[in-house]
Amino acid sequence: MTEKPRRESRIQRKNRELILSAALQEFSARGFAGTTIDQIADAAGLSKPNVLYYFASKDTIHVALLQAALEMWLAPLREIQAEGDAADQLLAYARRKLEMSRDYPQESRLFANEILQGAPRLAPILGGELRALVEEKSALIAQWSAQGRIAPVEPRHLLFSIWALTQHYADFEVQVRAVLGEGHDPFAEAQVFLDQLYRRLLAP
Amino acid sequence: MTEKPRRESRIQRKNRELILSAALQEFSARGFAGTTIDQIADAAGLSKPNVLYYFASKDTIHVALLQAALEMWLAPLREIQAEGDAADQLLAYARRKLEMSRDYPQESRLFANEILQGAPRLAPILGGELRALVEEKSALIAQWSAQGRIAPVEPRHLLFSIWALTQHYADFEVQVRAVLGEGHDPFAEAQVFLDQLYRRLLAP
Amino acid sequence: MTEKPRRESRIQRKNRELILSAALQEFSARGFAGTTIDQIADAAGLSKPNVLYYFASKDTIHVALLQAALEMWLAPLREIQAEGDAADQLLAYARRKLEMSRDYPQESRLFANEILQGAPRLAPILGGELRALVEEKSALIAQWSAQGRIAPVEPRHLLFSIWALTQHYADFEVQVRAVLGEGHDPFAEAQVFLDQLYRRLLAP
Amino acid sequence: MTEKPRRESRIQRKNRELILSAALQEFSARGFAGTTIDQIADAAGLSKPNVLYYFASKDTIHVALLQAALEMWLAPLREIQAEGDAADQLLAYARRKLEMSRDYPQESRLFANEILQGAPRLAPILGGELRALVEEKSALIAQWSAQGRIAPVEPRHLLFSIWALTQHYADFEVQVRAVLGEGHDPFAEAQVFLDQLYRRLLAP
DNA sequence: TATGAATGAGTTTTCATTCAT
DNA sequence: GATGAATGAAAACTCATTCAT
Questions:
Q1: CA of A91, closest CA in chain B: separation in Å?
Q2: What is the pLDDT of residue D8?
Q3: Between D31, D167, D174, which is nearest C34 by CB?
Q4: CA–CA gap between residue A195 and residue C41 (Å, rounded)
Q5: Which of A106, A166, A170, D66 could disulfide-link A28, Cβ–Cβ 3.0 to 4.6 Å?
Q6: Is there a single domain that holds both residue D153 and residue D112?
Q7: Nearest residue in chain D measured CA to CA from C203
Q8: Residue that is last in its domain, among C56, C77, C98
Q9: Could A117 and B193 be called an inter-chain contact, meaning their C-beta atoms sit closer than 8 Å?
Q10: Contacts of A166 by beta carbon, 8 Å cutoff, 6+ apart
Q11: B152 DSSP 8-state letter
Q12: Would an 8 Å CB–CB cutoff place B189 in contact with chain A?
């Protein structure tokens, strides 16, 4: 997940992280093309050439962020195991993904921006690592269905639905909040709704 | 959905539509900031100044597209009626939204791009017209639940789920296709999955 | 003063004058470079191509206006005669020039703009026709001085002073009004002041 | 007259001054709208983006020049004092203003261009600082008249006359030279003329 | 490490002018 | 006469990136 950690001084590591954090904020808010290095440098409190001292180009920063975000999104999926209660595991996955949307909405938006625009930088990973992982977990879910431990569902679309429903609360947050108005906790409400939805869907 | 039809010559209407269609393609693929007027002009087969002869600025084109797309997205929601079978209507709404994702994915992506970036141009509409419409239909859905015609569900999050699940297939199409691989019809499969999901969720 | 009046229809003459009047207003307010043909067309209530139907180019309009304005400025100077009271004639000249600044400030500003920028279009006239005219009238004034009919003054700088003092009230009108504040009639006050000034200067 | 001298490197100060000097030359010769940043950059021997590195926009350069020029023009007026010979002070003021027209004609033309076009950027200063200063000095001049130290004159128009007569030699320099022809020193002659004019006007 | 200085290659827009009807 | 349509040439900025220190 981290870059090449060769002999980084403390200050170097700190600046790298400052830049990544600033860039995440800016990229997720305005997209790659809509963000200037100046904005990143300002947000990071560094000079523009100094930002480029740490990352060779604007693109390099972007790629570093995308890789980190992707790794983050894949982790919970990897944790789905054959052992344990089937429905509980899927519900827990949805819950964990929703928490991530709540706690890391910028990463979600960065990712969404990229996919929306055709995933020029992620395509190989999507068709490679991600696909393989989905295949693996889909086989597991199909098995659960076959064993009658959950209702029969198309496993890949089940996973898509979890992604769509949870990421929606991060990616479309403005819309969700605008529609709900004040006095709502979208993520808490979503958790209740999703629990209900998946319990009913998966009940054998 | 159409613009103001004031004394437009045939050629004018045609060029306007050429530009809007080209711009939709480019904006939805690369975002507002990532698209240049040159690209739009090329895609429309017009010169750059000629594009600006029809639309005062890049932004004007964008706004025209957003308004049309928004109107398109709102229409099916408006059609939900008190009369008729409750669950059927909601299932039909999901189905219609999914068809739109299939048939107008560019509009969906344009819209997603905008919301993702904080909806600078749509915020007032989201909190105004959209919110009011959602309130109205939510009341209807709540009533259906209260009458036992569908299971008790939080109506607004039910609507969010329909939006998220259907638009996902347009907005994240690259990912969906990459994960599924060749030989799949994502939208057809999604239809089956969503039917199942909402039937189970809404069964009283 | 008028262009070639060959077989102009009534409507043609009217449009020509509409354009010239609109252009005078715009050029005098924003300078040649700061004015667009669109602004002139709008002010004239005509379409842009129609403006260019009457005048081959923006420059052509400008030149027509300059020539008319110059002719207008020269006329009163021409009227200074050997006969009559010397001081009275010079006072009358100043008075007439001041009236022109009051009644035709746009022409004055158009002219000033041009001279300020090096008189690219007027240079030959300034060194030709104007110079000759000034020479002629200067000789007359010098003669008056020699005859003791007015005090001895350098005639050309006397003329410069009349130009400067009268045109100032048109060209620097904003400044004059800003300094005087409300409730003043700059031109009426100027008349009194200039009468006093020249009476004292010229008193033999 | 100088800008804010905050931590400017030598090269920065030098380039800033190069740009201002080049811009003064261009703006005074062709007006604001008639001047391009390219021309300024060329005249300064810098690249266009480098000019914009020092000044955020064409307008910023213009404003900086106007402020400096205005300050320069106001200074001599401020120096008129209650003490000393009344007529001498006014004559000295006219002389100083004439010297400035001779030595800084570009500043004069820049200023004239701006006023001519309605003083969009100076209006507040004209009605504020300038007006107050004129009020103050007018009171002084009125007092001198009342005390019989100079002839009774309308003080504000007296000041206008000094401005008009001296600035004319800078602003209308082309015309003055064209009319006088070769072999003349306009400013030297003007000095003699103005001395005579004001001595006669102000003689009690 | 860090940054002030500089710029080439765009990008959006403007505008005088032309063209076709 | 009149104008909708179109555009080449420029003009004001923008920005990722480089350079020198």
A1: 15
A2: 67
A3: D31
A4: 67
A5: A106
A6: yes
A7: D200
A8: C56
A9: no
A10: A94, A97, A98, A100, A101, A190, A194
A11: -
A12: yes
- CA-CA distance, A99 to A97, in Å (whole number)? 5
Rounded Cα distance between D164 and D160, Å, is: 6
Which chain A residue has the Cα nearest residue B26? A117
Query: Which among B171, B201, B197 has a CA at the least distance from the CA of B186?
Result: B171
Helix, strand, coil shares of chain A as percentages rounded to 5? 75, 0, 25
- Give me the CATH number covering residue B15: 1.10.10.60
Q: What would the pLDDT profile of D7-51 be if each residue is shown by its tens digit?
A: 568 888 899 999 999 999 999 999 999 999 999 999 999 999 999
Residue D31 · residue C109 · CB < 8 Å: no
**Cβ neighbours for C189, distance < 8 A, ≥ 6 positions apart:** C180, D154, D157
CATH for D113? 1.10.357.10
Chain-centre distance for alpha carbon B85: 25
- pLDDT per residue, tens digit, chain C (204 aa), is 444 445 678 888 899 999 999 999 999 999 999 999 999 999 999 999 999 999 999 999 999 999 999 999 999 999 999 999 999 999 999 999 999 999 999 999 999 999 999 999 999 999 999 999 999 999 999 999 999 999 999 999 999 999 999 999 999 999 999 999 999 999 999 999 999 999 999 998
C neighbours by CB contacts (3+ pairs under 8 Å): D
Q: Do B130 and A201 touch (CB under 8 A)?
A: no
Which residue range forms the structural domain that includes residue B117?
Answer: 62-202
Close Cβ partners of D57 (under 8 Å, ≥ 6 residues apart): none
Share of chain B above pLDDT 70, in %: 96
* CA of residue D150 relative to chain centroid, distance: 26
Is the shortest CB-to-strand distance from B57 to strand F under 7 Å? no
Give dist(CA C98, CA C164) in Å, integer. 10
Is A95 in the same domain as A52?
no
Cα–Cα distance for residue pair C203/C185, rounded to 1 Å? 27
Residues D96, D80 within the same domain: yes
A89: amino acid identity, one letter: Q
Structural tokens at position D167:
């600035």
Q: What is the pTM of this model?
A: 0.91
Q: Which residues of A fall within a CB distance of 8 Å from B30?
A: 33, 117
Rounded distance between C-alpha atoms, residue B145 and residue B143, angstroms? 5
**Does B22 share its domain with B106?**
no
- Chain C residues whose beta carbon lies within 8 Å of the beta carbon of residue D167: 164
Contacts for D34 with CB less than 8 Å, ≥ 6 apart: C31, C32, C33, C34, C117
Query: Both A38 and A66 in a single domain?
Result: no
pLDDT digit string (tens) for A149-194? 999 999 999 999 999 999 999 999 999 999 999 999 999 999 999 9
Rounded to an integer, what distance in angstroms lies between the CA atom of residue B68 and that of residue B3? Answer: 9
- Nearest chain D Cα to C131, which residue? D179
All residues at 6 or more sequence positions from B124 whose CB lies less than 8 Å from its CB, including other chains: none
Contact A185/A92 with Cβ under 8 angstroms? no
- DSSP letter at A85 equals -
Asked if D168 has any chain C CB less than 8 Å from its own CB, the reply is yes
B174 touches A: beta carbon within 8 Å: yes
Q: Are residues C197 and C134 in the same domain?
A: yes
- C89 and C12 within one domain: no
pLDDT at D12: 84
Domains of chain D: total: 2
Report how far residue B153's alpha carbon sits from residue B150's, in angstroms, rounded to the nearest whole number: 8
Domain boundary among B56, B85, B102: B56
E strand map for chain D? none
